[in-house]
Amino acid sequence: MGEPLDTRAAQAEEVIERLRREYPDPEISLDFSDRFELLVAVVLSAQCTDERVNAVTADLFETYDGPADFAAADVDDIADDIDSITYYNSKAGYLHDAAEKILAEHDGEVPDTMSALTDLPGVGRKTANVVLQHGHDLTEGIVVDTHVQRLSRRLGITEEERPEKIEADLMDGVVPEEHWKNYTHWLIAHGRDTCTARNPDCEDCVLEDVCPSSKLDHDVDLADGGEW
């Protein structure tokens, strides 16, 4: 039996309040100068570190200037230019085909709706959420990356497992809408700095006393329910 909604909402409120003090100015860590570069960077970031993506796009954006250049390029050439990125062959095809579609159906502009974005090759809801939030200043959902997925479960805020279901659960009265955008950044920052996947630093965690997954031996507010 899972925790009731009001308990999870109270837990989310406490987590948000502490993390907003810890990280008062959360920002996206990908480098980009326009909406299309943002789209490219987010597509490349799937199962790849932002640091690696930024290293690759520093040269990539010098070579390809906008969707027209990506659409005109040979997919194999794009793949060669991003070959240090995970799944670079697939992502090269996505970038080429998405650029073609943006030119053909959106006059060369990155669309500003969830449906149009997720209709682009290689773009799922997570990528679309990032582009909407940071490219169009529109927040329609919560970006659920691996950090948000891991920490939301560890902290007892959700028991859902799949990103799409986690997002829907968090949006349904658990995380206030005004925090949907920054919730992701706060959990990413905390996941990188403290609550890592393999060796979370519970002793130096600002959430340790309210975390049901704490490795330290004492009682916490919620029933045990985290996953390692």
Description:
With 228 residues, the protein is mostly helical. 54% of the residues lie in helices and 0% in strands. It has two domains: 5-26 and 143-210, Helix-hairpin-Helix base-excision DNA repair enzymes (C-terminal) (Endonuclease Iii, domain 2, Orthogonal Bundle), CATH 1.10.1670; 35-135, Hypothetical protein, domain 2 (Endonuclease III, domain 1). Helix 2 packs antiparallel against helix 8 and helix 5 crosses helix 6 (88-106). The protein starts with a helix and ends in a 35-residue tail after the last helix. The model is unreliable at 220-228 (pLDDT under 50).
H/I helix tally: 11
Residue fraction in strands:
under 5%
CATH topology of the largest domain: Endonuclease III, domain 1
List low-pLDDT spans: 220-228
Please report the first level of CATH classification, the CATH class of the largest domain: Mainly Alpha
Give the count of structural domains: 2
What is the overall pLDDT average?
Answer: 93
Written as H for each helix and E for each strand, in order along the chain, the element string is HHHHHHHHHHH
**Largest sheet report:** none
Report the helical percentage. Answer: 40-55%
GO molecular function: 4 iron, 4 sulfur cluster binding; class I DNA-(apurinic or apyrimidinic site) endonuclease activity; DNA binding; G/T mismatch-specific thymine-DNA glycosylase activity; metal ion binding
Cofactor: [4Fe-4S] cluster
Pfam family, one: HhH-GPD
Domain HhH-GPD: 44-193
